[in-house]
Design brief:
The protein starts with a strand and ends with a strand. Strand 4 and strand 5 form a beta hairpin. The chain is mainly β. The chain is built from no helices and eleven strands.
């Protein structure tokens, strides 16, 4: 059974850093792209970043460009989101997701991890 498990969330002060981890299992992800999304209370889900498992091409949402970095470790089926210069508006539940290349829909989601940035 395929699953994604996020970890690494927590409470951090403005300007601080956190690294989120997404552990993927139960599926061969070589033909997938992995993404991070976030959702704050009362707001719609927002795209944060994505990376192609093969080749490593990355994409970022405008609000995190230059501050966040997505990477993957193929040997351990792990995707990371390094977050720096955090702002209170980065506070949200962060979700890891996967979609097959060629499909527009993310079809596998993790349970989410809370990130709270205090001012």
């Amino acid at each position: 059974q395929a699953q994604l498990v996020e970890s690494g969330g927590g409470l951090v002060q403005t300007g601080g850093s956190l690294r989120l981890t997404c552990s993927a299992s139960g599926r061969t992800f070589s033909s997938y792209a992995m993404g991070w999304f976030r959702q704050a209370p009362g707001k719609e889900r927002e795209f944060v970043a994505s990376i192609r498992w093969s080749g490593g091409s990355t994409y970022y949402g405008d609000s995190v460009k230059g501050r966040f970095a997505i990477s993957r470790a193929r040997s351990s089926n792990t995707v990371y989101l390094q977050m720096t210069s955090l702002k209170p508006e980065d506070t949200a539940v962060y979700y890891c997701a996967a979609h097959r290349i060629g499909s527009s829909a993310y079809d596998l989601w993790g349970q989410g991890t809370q990130v709270t940035v205090s001012s």
